[in-house]
């Protein structure tokens, strides 16, 4: 037994034969109803039970997405966009069945415009693929959620990751989108200019909309010049709170650090085991500095002093590119490394983000909660943003462990909300945070979201069952 | 005669006595129907004919705004939020009459949270007032549209200004809002955390919504550490295109300049006359560099070399704070200075913004257009963003000059759109850019905006007649 998502029967209707026939005409052998293909598209990296779509189509062009949406609207069948399936919150599960649109074959780099620091890509292009294509241009795309996610999916969840403290999240780095609407029309949002005041910010509306307002069929992102100099360092601390306070002070002083990642003792052990490192198994920070040679040296000097002031052990520099790569690769594999702490486990991952001044308090409280639990709970965090993750490791065969994990998750989320934070800094709501949306936003703000959803998807066919309950909770 | 806005009679209905009575109960002597007060609230800095509201209320608390909206919804009467009236696009004109809600008395600083680099203010707080309140905290609020605009108004138009090249616009710097909706409910958007993936980005939806989706009753903004070092410089060029190319190269190299302002020869003359300066009357750039001492020196060195490569005359440094202030104050008064080039004139101001690589081409084309016109057309621009303004000076008693100005405006906007840009980089749509929204976004994307508008303001009472036509243009 796995973690139960909403019952599969709710609102699920059989796929009309006419729709299947029309889709087969459109896609030929790029349509699949095979169990294995549907199973692959009915799960993600979350601990939820899979919910299989009724069919999967592999789109190669925007007009196919548009036609699929129009057909599904006509037959009142749900549509769920699918990138690489790296979501941690159940985003791609077909809880009401329907058609999964796999966008992984829409993986062309449409254009790289180095003069304007812009790239336009199809939604199935992954972040690593984009950065590979940028080699030699002197530019890079900084948003880095760890997984080699698709750009479309990263838009959908408003992803961020390790570099966001300096470069922002997808919110700041998407310049424009092409989006197929629920009725099959296709719009473009934004322009290629850096800023605009021409009407509602549709780009920002679709970024973070988790496939519930339209299917993103093209993405234009901002690129950044590769820094002239990069250096990385790590340092350990006697306790989590000391480490976090060092980061807080760094942020408050305005040091333009590129990365500030927290790893607790248990997470450090997992990285050692999984990536064959020799990290000290203690709370620690990984820093990265970007800039000119002078600026990097200056930043490092300031941070080294701050770290010393908080009892951190002396910096260990990763000066060679290979050393840096090894460090960050290990950090990127943290999720899978942590799972290996409890072989066969799945993770319920928290994703709270709080104002930086409350981060130490938030982590200290979390530390007490998890110390009192029997479940292993390694912690990693993009602490420069006030964002951290607890991977609560559960045995999928023990339902009581899911209950315990959800109890811990709720404690952690409610503490973050009480401190002025959010239930999800970067993973999105999906299925897993729906229950906290009312507490975070209030029912009236949720009503505004519902009104927008209804205006753009009146039949609730776009990734239904995600993000918020369709009706107001009776008070 | 002045520049005609849409006919005042369109859709205008008489104010019901019951509404006026209810508002008088609520506001007492903070309600005015005096001609002078209404006239003051029926115009802005644009060249449009005034359109007077039927009454003006001076709100002091959110609940008053909310009650006003509920009453106006009940009586189906328009509501127009009013900050300081510094709009350049006719935003506050009561083209369908109704109630102007003056927010200038809601000018309390609610909180300054230096540890989180956040301030919360009422919507009538102006940017200078906020920066005065920040003195001694080591922080500042960088968004600077020139005018001492209210933060509520700056949210409504998605303002930016001279510092946006480094610090972003209101889009990037608003963390959360309190908004009173059309039916009188009050919501909060965003949290105090730096990032969130919890649902639709309502903050970014209301930022730039020009009072058409709700009335902003509180604003939480990001603050930035005052730079350790600041230096400013200016330099002149043989031609506009050389100056612009110097900025393009600076941006493409990723130099983190804080300001890069273009002033053409005619605008320089206006600044000399208005602010008693001795600028060379030639195309020129004003730069400002922020950072550590070393970083500022490094940036300046790079830019100085780029300027020299483009035939710029040697930098003149404004090293003393007083010199810098004088320079930037003059720049901030440019609008009024330019008006004085033609005493008694009004300005039709363009606000296009294009991808940085197309800026030289855009300005060169614009230069040819205005050289062929009889109207004086000084140019200033936030060229680091690809954004520039032509102030087309017209004699308000000569309708043919308005026609000529609009002809030029249309040429300039259409060129910018053809180059991948936007009709408005920072001033907003208001009344003046409505005609270009279809060309910029396409009718289907406009339909999405209309659907959102209808969902949140079904009776079209919130600042009606602005931003886009309520119905699709028949094709």
UniProtKB/TrEMBL annotation, chains A, B:
UniProt-listed PANTHER family: D-LACTATE DEHYDROGENASE, D-LACTATE DEHYDROGENASE, MITOCHONDRIAL-RELATED
FAD-binding PCMH-type domain sequence ranges: 49-226
Gene Ontology BP term (one): lactate catabolic process
EC number from the UniProt entry: 1.1.2.4
Protein family membership: Belongs to the FAD-binding oxidoreductase/transferase type 4 family.
Name of the protein this chain belongs to: D-lactate dehydrogenase (cytochrome)
Keyword Flavoprotein belongs to the record: yes
Signal sequence, renumbered to the chain: none
InterPro entries attached to this UniProt entry: FAD-bd_oxidored_4_C, FAD-bd_PCMH, FAD-bd_PCMH-like_sf, FAD-bd_PCMH_sub2, FAD-linked_Oxase-like_C, Oxid_FAD_bind_N, Vanillyl_alc_oxidase_C-sub2
Lineage: Bacteria, Pseudomonadati, Pseudomonadota, Betaproteobacteria, Burkholderiales
MF annotations from Gene Ontology: D-lactate dehydrogenase (cytochrome) activity; D-lactate dehydrogenase (NAD+) activity; FAD binding
Keywords: FAD, Flavoprotein, Oxidoreductase, Transit peptide
Pfam families: FAD-oxidase_C, FAD_binding_4
Top enzyme category: oxidoreductase
Chain segments annotated as transmembrane: none
Cofactor(s) named in the record: FAD
């Amino acid at each position: 037994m796995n973690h139960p998502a909403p019952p599969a029967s709710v609102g699920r209707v059989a796929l009309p034969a006419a729709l299947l026939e029309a889709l087969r005409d459109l896609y030929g052998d790029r349509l699949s109803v095979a169990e294995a293909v549907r199973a692959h598209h009915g799960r993600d990296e979350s601990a939820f039970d899979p919910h299989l779509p009724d069919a999967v189509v592999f789109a190669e062009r925007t007009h196919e997405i548009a036609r699929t949406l129009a057909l599904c609207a006509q037959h009142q069948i749900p549509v769920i966009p699918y990138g690489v399936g790296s979501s941690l919150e159940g985003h791609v599960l077909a809880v009401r069945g329907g058609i999964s649109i796999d966008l992984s074959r829409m993986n062309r780099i449409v254009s790289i415009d180095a003069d304007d620091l812009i790239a336009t890509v199809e939604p199935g292009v992954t972040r690593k693929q984009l950065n590979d294509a940028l080699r030699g241009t002197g530019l890079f795309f900084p948003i880095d959620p760890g997984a080699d996610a698709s750009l479309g999916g990263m838009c959908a969840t408003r992803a961020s990751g390790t570099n966001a403290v300096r470069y922002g999240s997808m919110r700041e780095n998407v310049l424009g989108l092409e989006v197929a609407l629920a009725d099959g029309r296709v719009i473009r949002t934004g322009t290629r200019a850096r800023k605009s005041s021409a009407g509602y910010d549709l780009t920002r509306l679709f970024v973070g909309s988790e496939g519930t307002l339209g299917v993103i069929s093209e993405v234009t992102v901002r690129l950044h010049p590769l820094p002239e100099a990069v250096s990385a360092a790590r340092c350990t601390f006697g306790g989590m709170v000391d480490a976090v306070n060092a980061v807080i002070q760094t942020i408050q002083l305005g040091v333009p650090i590129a990365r500030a990642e927290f790893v607790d003792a248990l997470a450090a052990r997992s990285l050692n085991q999984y990536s064959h490192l020799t990290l000290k198994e203690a709370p620690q920070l990984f820093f990265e500095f970007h800039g000119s040679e002078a600026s990097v040296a200056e930043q490092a000097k300031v941070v080294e002093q701050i770290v010393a002031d908080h009892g951190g052990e002396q910096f260990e520099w990763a000066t060679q590119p290979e050393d840096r790569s090894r460090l960050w690769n290990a950090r990127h594999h943290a999720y899978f490394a942590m799972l290996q702490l409890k072989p066969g486990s799945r993770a319920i991952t928290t994703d709270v983000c709080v104002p930086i001044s409350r981060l130490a308090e938030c982590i200290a409280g979390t530390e007490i909660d998890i110390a009192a639990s029997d479940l292993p709970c390694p912690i990693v965090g993009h602490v420069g943003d006030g964002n951290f993750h607890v991977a609560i490791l559960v045995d999928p065969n023990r339902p009581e462990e899911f209950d315990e994990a959800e109890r811990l998750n709720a404690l952690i989320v409610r503490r973050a909300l009480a401190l002025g934070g959010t239930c999800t800094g970067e993973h999105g709501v999906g299925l897993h945070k729906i229950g906290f949306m009312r507490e975070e936003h209030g029912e009236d703000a949720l009503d505004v979201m519902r009104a927008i959803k209804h205006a753009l998807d009146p039949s609730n066919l776009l990734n239904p069952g995600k993000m918020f309950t369709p009706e107001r909770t009776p008070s």
